[in-house]
Design goal:
Blueprint (H helix, E strand, L loop, with lengths): L2 H6 L5 H9 L1 E6 L2 E4 L8 H8 L14 E5 L5 E4 L8 H9 L1 H8 L6 E7 L9 E8 H9 L1
Parallel strand pairs: 4-5
Antiparallel strand pairs: 1-2, 1-3, 3-4, 5-6
């Protein structure tokens, strides 16, 4: 395992790489929304390293950047840290950029938003979200109030 795999606690198998290719990564760094190219077979940590934001020696920024992905059904998942947490600070950051993300990826308003992920005890199980925020439409309506 390399350093990023150890920190995530996930071995980069072909199954994991297939999952990575099936989703579209995004992050909010220095209050700017970034959307990764499609079909990338690697993690956010590798993406951030390629951007020059972190290195294998200095990777504390992974605990601060709001990041996530849009799955192939159009649902959004966001989180921070190596253990896929959410907190009030990243919720504010994420929701302030929701409209931009929806526009950049042309997401459907009935798609759902989830915060955080819970790593399953056994590999092969589906990761469950920590929090369900409802639909994009309901959240965009809440932001306008």
């Amino acid at each position: 395992m390399d350093k990023f795999e150890e920190k995530y606690g996930i071995e980069e198998t072909e199954k994991v790489k297939t999952f990575h290719r099936s989703r579209r990564m995004f992050c909010i760094h220095q209050n700017r929304l970034y959307v990764a190219k499609p079909n990338l077979s690697y993690s956010h940590a590798v993406w951030f390293e390629k951007e020059g934001w972190i290195s294998r020696q200095k990777d504390k920024l992974i605990d601060k950047i709001t990041r996530g992905f849009v799955d192939n059904s159009g649902d959004i998942y966001f989180y921070t840290e190596y253990d896929f947490r959410i907190n009030p600070d990243i919720e504010l950051v994420f929701f302030s950029h929701l409209g931009g993300l929806v526009g950049k990826l042309n997401l459907k308003l009935n798609s759902k938003i989830f915060g955080g992920l819970i790593k399953p005890q056994t590999s092969g199980e589906k990761w469950k979200p920590r929090k369900d925020y409802g639909t994009i439409k309901s959240q965009l309506s809440n932001l306008k109030k």
